[in-house]
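> example.struct
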């Protein structure tokens, strides 16, 4: 089971879009995919066709059980989506209160990792849409993934947000034994603007190989797809944006192949 966390402390950079785009492509390729929506805004949950205030259980329940959830409890928190091979562990607004509720209660950093271990044979891929706040949810998401995907909007201000995210990764890394594998994904690329190209160059200068050597273009089909509550690859399979996510997926799978070789 491959686990990717899609994270950036800045909002509006394409985290949710990247999650649902990659999930849709993987599901089409007959991979069994679980999407986990950890963001209290529940955009991913909405995207996959659910009202976050009406779902029976959610990520929240996984954290609020007194003990580590059993395999049955983890399975109960997952719902199948309309898309074949694509399941969802939804978010609810209550997730926003989790840090306050748990307070300084220690030992909560591996709850999700253990929960996923109990369903490891059920899925080929787990994609986690991580909230932009450094808290118990982000720590859990970063603790259980093989790779962090960091979408970065190709505009100057976004670089500052990325620096913050990289500091967070370093901070959390210190409490873990193993180094993070991460991939920076240039998003919302507008080929007509200097800012997009300049930002892309700066990213490569600073982060070198960690930057995917491609970019996700601005594509209005993404907004339409979210309105239709469909993964972009189902809504507009031949769109520029979807083709870009296809080549990103190929790149990520190659990296994963190299690691396991
Ligand atoms: P985040 O999850 O980081 O907050 P989203 O994925 O929700 O960001 O994207 C923010 C907004 O930008 C959404 O309205 C989404 O539809 C739109 N969007 C994301 N990626 C693209 C793109 N490549 N082209 C056009 N619009 C996009
Ligand atoms: Mg989002």
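> example.seq
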């Amino acid at each position: 089971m491959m686990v990717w966390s899609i994270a950036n402390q800045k909002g509006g950079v394409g985290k949710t879009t990247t999650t649902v785009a990659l999930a849709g492509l993987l599901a089409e390729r007959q991979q069994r995919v679980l999407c986990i929506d950890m963001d209290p805004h529940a955009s991913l949950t909405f995207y996959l066709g659910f009202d976050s205030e009406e779902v029976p259980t959610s990520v929240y329940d996984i954290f609020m059980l007194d003990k580590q959830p059993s395999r049955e409890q983890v399975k109960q928190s997952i719902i199948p989506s309309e898309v074949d091979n694509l399941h969802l562990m939804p978010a609810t607004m209550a997730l926003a209160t989790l840090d306050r509720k748990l307070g300084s209660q220690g030992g909560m950093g591996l709850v999700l990792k253990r929960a996923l271990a109990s369903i490891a044979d059920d899925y080929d891929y787990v994609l986690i849409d991580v909230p932009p706040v450094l808290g118990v949810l982000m720590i859990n998401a970063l603790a259980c993934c093989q790779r962090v995907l960091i979408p970065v909007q190709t505009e100057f201000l976004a670089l500052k947000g990325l620096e913050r995210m990289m500091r967070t990764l370093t901070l959390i890394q210190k409490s873990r034994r193993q180094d993070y594998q991460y991939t920076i994904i240039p998003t919302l690329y507008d080929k007509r603007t200097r800012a997009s190209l300049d930002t892309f160059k700066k990213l490569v200068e600073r982060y070198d190989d960690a930057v995917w050597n491609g970019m996700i273009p601005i594509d209005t089909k993404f907004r339409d797809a979210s309105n239709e509550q469909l993964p972009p690859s189902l809504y507009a399979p031949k769109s520029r944006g979807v083709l870009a996510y296809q080549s990103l997926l190929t790149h990520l799978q190659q990296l994963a192949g190299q690691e396991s070789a």
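> remarks
The pocket of adenosine-5'-diphosphate (ligand 1) is lined by residues 11-17, 43, 187-188, 216, 218-219, 222-223, 226, 241 (CB under 6 Å).
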